[in-house]
């Protein structure tokens, strides 16, 4: 199954990842300190690790399940470290923020100016419509499965667990398919910018 996943079989990769989901989620829960528990969701960290694993599976050099799990744990540790850094930076910046009420009371401050600002200019509206058209065209050029998972996840806001039966795939496979669809869209839109 590892070899099939390495060759790009999304179902095999999804099954491999699903086998380790609960173990990895528990690992994150045990590593996050009490000060960050309310802000770091273990499921989100595991999901990020799975996306990175899907992106990098071709570079996995191990051959067995134990090596695969060790590789996943290293990815998970990196994702968790990134989350911890992000939340600690955010906490520091929150300490320095001024309350909205205080900003509004300052007549020459940024809040009153923003509240009095007019809507977007006609050229901004035209640029926004053009970007939306480019995105719609790029979505239409996606392969059928990519287009379908994009539609269900992004436009209908369905969770992976609801998309999976509609597409006849596992939730892990749907996650990988969605990540690949987003990568393809980003690559195409960056090429047109």
TrEMBL record:
Q: Does the keyword Transcription regulation apply?
A: yes
The RNA polymerase sigma-70 region domain is annotated at: 16-90
Keywords from UniProt, A to Z, are: DNA-binding, Sigma factor, Transcription, Transcription regulation
**Which residue intervals define the domain RNA polymerase sigma factor 70 region 4 type in the entry?**
134-185
**Keyword Transcription applies:** yes
Family that this chain belongs to: Belongs to the sigma-70 factor family. ECF subfamily.
Q: What is this protein called?
A: Sigma-70 family RNA polymerase sigma factor
According to its UniProt entry, this protein's organism is Paludisphaera mucosa
Q: What is the lineage of its organism?
A: Bacteria, Pseudomonadati, Planctomycetota, Planctomycetia, Isosphaerales
């Amino acid at each position: 199954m590892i070899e099939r996943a390495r060759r790009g079989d999304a179902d095999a990769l999804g099954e491999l990842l699903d086998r380790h989901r609960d173990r990895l989620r528990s690992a994150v829960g045990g590593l996050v300190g009490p000060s960050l528990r309310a802000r770091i969701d273990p499921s989100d960290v595991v999901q990020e690790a799975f996306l990175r694993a899907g992106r990098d599976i071709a570079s996995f050099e191990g051959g067995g399940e134990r090596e695969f799990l060790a590789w996943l744990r290293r990815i998970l540790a990196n994702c968790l470290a990134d989350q911890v850094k992000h939340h600690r930076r955010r906490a520091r910046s929150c300490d320095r923020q001024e309350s909205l009420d205080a900003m509004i009371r300052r007549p020459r401050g940024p809040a009153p100016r923003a509240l009095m600002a007019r809507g977007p200019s006609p050229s901004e509206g035209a640029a926004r419509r053009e970007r939306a058209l480019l995105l719609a065209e790029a979505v239409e050029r996606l392969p059928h499965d990519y287009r379908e998972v994009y539609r269900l996840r992004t436009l209908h806001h369905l969770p992976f667990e609801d998309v999976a039966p509609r597409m006849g795939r596992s939730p892990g496979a749907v996650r990988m398919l969605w990540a690949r669809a987003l990568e393809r869209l980003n690559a195409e839109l960056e090429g047109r910018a």
